Amino acid sequence: MGNPADTPSRVLADTLKRYWGYDTFRELQLEIMLSTLRCEDTLALMPTGGGKSVCFQVPGLVLGGTTVVVTPLVSLMKDQVDNLKMRHIKAVYLHAGMTSREIRIAWEHITNGNCKFLYISPERLLNDRFCAELKRLDIRLIVVDEAHCISQWGYDFRPSYLRIAKLRKLIPHAPVLALTATATPAVAEDICDKLMFRHHNIMRRSFARSNISYVVRRTQEKQSMLLRILSRTSGSAIVYVRSRRRTRTVAEYLQSMGIDAVHFHAGLSFEEKEQRQNRWKQGAVRVMVATNAFGMGIDKPDVRVVIHYGMPPSLEEYYQEAGRAGRDGKPAYAVILAGIKDIERLKASVDEMFPPKKDIKRIYQLVCTFLNVSLDEGYEKFCPFDIDKFCETFGYKRRMVLAALKILGNSGYLTYTEEGETRSRLMIIMDRNELYGIQVSAEANRLLSTMLRTYTGLFTEYVFISENELASRMGMDTRLVHELLLELSRAKVIHYVPQNRLPHIFFDTAREDSPNVMISRAAYELRRDVVKKRVSAMIGYVTYTGGCRVRKMLAYFGETESEPCGKCDICRDNKKRPGNQRQQQLELIDAIYNYIKTASAPVTMREVRRRFTDNQQTADAVRFLCRERYVTLSDDTLSMTK
């Protein structure tokens, strides 16, 4: 680190300031980074919006060499690579949907030393040649983002994540930093086991978000309740719904009532998504009505309310989505609108998620036939998959096909994702000096000149383009731009990869004959039990009336010593009811007692007053504990009575 005076903390702080412009770290960030610099395997549990990416990007720069980042979301890796490049930090990504030419160009950047961060999808670890190339790199750190995906007890288990353990054998000297925003204690321990941690070094930041008021409204009249909430709050809002069709109907209803709203789901084109997202981020539109396809990687700090127009399938997903509110630290609301039908529908969803095994095997065979994958072929094949056409052809409901694909994925046969490559990209493959004599039409030549004026880096890497933008600049039809790009591609001037809005399937194994397709107990029966428990916890949260709603949620994530939030709907109702002061005081006594009991060192009165509000109720609670001989007070220090 150069100068002996440059302590690790100082070097990390200087790096943070130089590239990100921040003067201080957020809670727990520095501790995680120092653990990484000590080459300790670390699992970081941080709430949504807690600054997880900085936790590995800063130490990655300090360690030198290359940091490998495994992430399941292509859109997220692209966003992070783009953000790093904007800060003049060299970064590259590799995923299953790239062409062989794109992969070759990316490897040239990597082997030429133009890569501080290499983002990969877990499917890349199937490829033995890729792993051999990886072993030759100077890798100093392995990062596992969305680490809960490696645990079969996690809410978004992805078998491809189990291959990450292979990296440990390939690069045994590099420490692992795993990050997630949602993990129960059992999932956290499982993550450490699956990643072969030398020691279970788990760093937790409280899941509590003190500025968010969590509310459940039990109602059958959702539209009127939605309107009422939005009318009584101000600022940006997100409304989450469970289907693409409902995004449109809810947005249109809000528009009819005079509230600016747009809808968002995975089926929109890239241009539509970007336009609507940007309008909402800039404040031109107040409400975004969306499926859960919206929000990942979106860091809009001033979202004042997140409303779930129905029940989420799990507390993990709810916590992540609700956590997009109030990232600026100012007061915000997270509201669930739930009726009796929602609860019954969520219970029934468990059966829908686990169709009969014979149907799953049948769907597997039909998918292979649909994609022209023959028996014993298909290993590592990447195929666009038109699921709507498939359902129409074979007479299946979309929900059943999606459920079958999920179980087949958990059994190790294929990986389905709706996150298809939706943006067109190209690279100029002809030498700059040869461009002057190319034999193409005048319109194609004019398009080439327009692209050179519009985009940078076309000669060195693949660049995302918009046919609509080019058509607008040239005053022509988008279809003609597409045809001209194909003309330039045929003339070997460019390599053009048109946008593809379809989901895709990646085959983890060669096609098996139907009798040999094994749906494992872990992928079906055990997974079903996990989903049932998760659904039960979600229903328990929504129907809970016994105390603080936030304490109920935090207990699910292992925080059993939390105190009443005072802001959720239950706490607010209790404050309004006469005669509830006694119950509140008992809860305060219990919270203070547990705080003193679990403390690793004697607790001072000053610490108690700072943690539990310096008022008469806190003083009375401590006096009661001393009078009843639960604790002892000596020289302003509280300790358990022996």
The proportion of strand residues reads: 15-25%
Main pleated-sheet profile: 7 strands, parallel
Percent in helix: 40-55%
Distance between the termini: 49 Å
- State the shape: globular
Description:
The protein has 642 residues and is α/β, with parallel strands linked by helices. The protein is 44% helix and 15% strand. It has a 7-stranded parallel sheet, sandwiched between helices. It has a 6-stranded parallel sheet with strand order 8-13-12-9-11-10, sandwiched between helices. A 3-stranded antiparallel sheet has the order 14-19-15. α11 links the parallel β10 (261-264) and β11 (287-290). α14 (357-370) packs across α16 (398-410) and α23 packs across α25. The longest helix has 19 residues, at 525-543. The protein starts with 7 loop residues before the first helix and ends with a strand. 35% of the residues are buried.
Summarize the structure.
By secondary structure, the protein is of the alpha/beta class. The chain is built from 25 helices and 22 strands.
Q: Key features?
A:
single chain; 642 residues; alpha/beta; 7-stranded parallel sheet; 25 helices
Topology (SSEs and partners):
Layout: H1 8-20, H2 29-37, E1 42-45, H3 52-63, E2 66-70, H4 74-86, E3 91-94, H5 100-111, E4 117-120, H6 128-135, E5 139-144, H7 165-170, E6 176-180, H8 185-194, E7 202-204, E8 212-218, H9 222-232, E9 236-240, H10 244-256, E10 261-264, H11 270-281, E11 287-290, E12 303-308, H12 315-322, E13 332-338, H13 340-353, H14 357-370, E14 382-384, H15 387-394, H16 398-410, E15 414-417, E16 424-428, H17 442-454, E17 463-465, H18 467-474, H19 478-490, E18 494-497, E19 504-507, H20 525-543, H21 549-556, H22 569-576, H23 581-598, E20 603-604, H24 605-612, H25 616-627, E21 631-634, E22 637-640
Parallel strand pairs: 1-6, 1-7, 2-4, 2-5, 3-4, 5-6, 8-13, 9-11, 9-12, 10-11, 12-13
Antiparallel strand pairs: 14-19, 15-19, 16-17, 16-18, 20-22, 21-22
Helix pairs in contact: 1-3, 2-3, 13-20, 14-16, 17-19, 18-19, 23-25
